[in-house]
């Protein structure tokens, strides 16, 4: 791997993406193998074809891609981050019902509703528990009162027994 120059690795990735042999997952896996491939995989020339072939694009996207191709470091990783955003919007959100944290008013409402529903369930269970414990506590109280009466009766019987003999 270290024998091949960077431009050859870039060309290999571009050909793989062009022939659809490599997809975004493969590029991400390549980028985790070493620093050199991470740097090469973060290049805009790798992510531009993926973005153009995978998602609907606007004029702004095309303009950003053309600027990113011409500049070296100012817009580095911009196309990759644009791909991540599009992947979230067009794939993850519909598939898993995810929401964007930037527009989290609805999320906060749903979260609060879930929290309140959970709280109602907890209160209902605690109420049922209290209802079930009430007769037990009453019986324990009666039992302790009867024990006291029994102790008093035993003490009185002992006193009577002592007085008799």
Q: What class, by secondary structure content?
A: mainly alpha
Q: Please estimate the helix content.
A: over 70%
The strand count comes to 0
Gross morphology: rod-shaped
Quick description:
Residues 1-50 form the F-box domain. This protein has helices at residues 6-18, 24-31, 35-41, 44-54, 59-70, 78-96, 105-164. It has 165 residues and is mainly alpha-helical.
Description:
The chain is mostly helical. It folds into 2 domains: 6-98, no CATH class; 101-165. It has helices spanning 6-18, 24-31, 35-41, 44-54, 59-70, 78-96, 105-164. The protein starts with 5 loop residues before the first helix and ends with a helix. The model has no long low-confidence stretch (mean pLDDT 82).
Write the layout of secondary structure elements.
Layout: H1 6-18, H2 24-31, H3 35-41, H4 44-54, H5 59-70, H6 78-96, H7 105-164
What are the salient characteristics of this protein?
single chain; 165 residues; mainly alpha; 2 domains; 7 helices; 0% strand; rod-shaped
């Amino acid at each position: 791997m270290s024998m091949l120059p960077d431009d050859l690795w870039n060309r290999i990735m571009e050909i793989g993406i062009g022939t659809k042999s490599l997809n975004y997952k493969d590029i991400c896996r390549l980028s985790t193998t070493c620093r050199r491939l991470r740097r090469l995989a973060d290049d805009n020339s790798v992510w531009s074809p993926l973005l153009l072939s995978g998602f609907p694009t606007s004029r702004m996207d095309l303009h950003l891609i053309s600027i990113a191709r011409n500049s070296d470091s100012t817009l580095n990783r911009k196309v990759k981050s644009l791909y991540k955003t599009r992947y979230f919007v067009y794939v993850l959100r519909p598939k898993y019902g995810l929401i964007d944290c930037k527009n989290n008013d609805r999320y906060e409402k749903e979260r609060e509703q879930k929290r309140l529903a959970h709280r109602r369930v907890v209160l209902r269970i605690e109420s049922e528990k209290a209802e079930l414990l009430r007769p037990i506590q009453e019986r324990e109280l009666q039992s302790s009162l009867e024990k006291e009466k029994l102790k008093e009766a035993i003490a009185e019987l002992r006193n009577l027994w002592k007085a008799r003999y």
